[in-house]
Amino acid sequence: MTLYKKKPLSLGFTLIELMITVAIIGILVGIAYPNFQSSIMKSRRVDAQAALMGFANAMERFSTVNNVYPSAGVSGIYAATSPVGGTIVYYQLLISTSTNVSYELQAVPTGAQSSDQCGTLTIDQAGVRGFSGLGMTVADCW
């Protein structure tokens, strides 16, 4: 009868196994991080869109009471930044142009958000939406 000797179990990782694991994690992070950044930028843009819609509603309320739209530069009818009430500002909200019968509102990106491809978002009294970026469509940005 032959007795077989058992090989001792290895209790650790070899350097090659560890390097392969680190390489796989690096590849996954290289793919996931840009997608994460893109999602963050889109969510901030959606917040600015909501702020623009709220600003447009405030303009309409002002017009209902006063029979004119407020002039460009008038503050106090709505927040001047997006996120509304936030401590970090990603968009500045402003009245671009205003007459008695029309207006255009803008959400101008600031800081890290200024690299957004959609650029400045706009909306007017008729609800027409626009943007200043290149290579995008209104459907992409709104």
Structural description of this entry:
This protein is of the alpha+beta class. It has one domain: Glycoprotein, Type 4 Pilin (2-Layer Sandwich). It contains 2 helices and 5 strands. A 5-stranded antiparallel sheet has the order 1-2-3-4-5. The longest helix is centred in the first third of the chain and has 52 residues, at 15-66. The chain starts with 14 loop residues before the first helix and ends with a helix. The mean pLDDT is 86.
SSE layout:
Elements: H1 15-66, E1 81-82, E2 91-98, E3 103-109, E4 121-124, E5 129-131, H2 138-141
Antiparallel strand pairs: 1-2, 2-3, 3-4, 4-5
Short description:
By secondary structure, the protein is an alpha+beta fold.
- The order of strands across the largest sheet is 1-2-3-4-5
Distance between the termini: 80 Å
Give the C-alpha Rg. 27 Å
Shape: rod-shaped
* Strand residue percentage: 15-25%
- Could you name the CATH class? Alpha Beta
Outline the biggest β-sheet: 5 strands, antiparallel
Number of strands: 5
- What is the CATH third-level topology name? Glycoprotein, Type 4 Pilin
CATH architecture: 2-Layer Sandwich
Class by helix and strand content? alpha+beta
Give the SSE order as H and E letters: HEEEEEH
Spans of at least 5 consecutive residues whose pLDDT stays below 50 are none
Q: What's the number of helices?
A: 2
Please estimate the helix content.
25-40%
Give the domain tally.
Answer: 1
| Average of per-residue pLDDT values | 86
Key features?
142 residues, Glycoprotein, Type 4 Pilin, 5-stranded antiparallel sheet, single chain
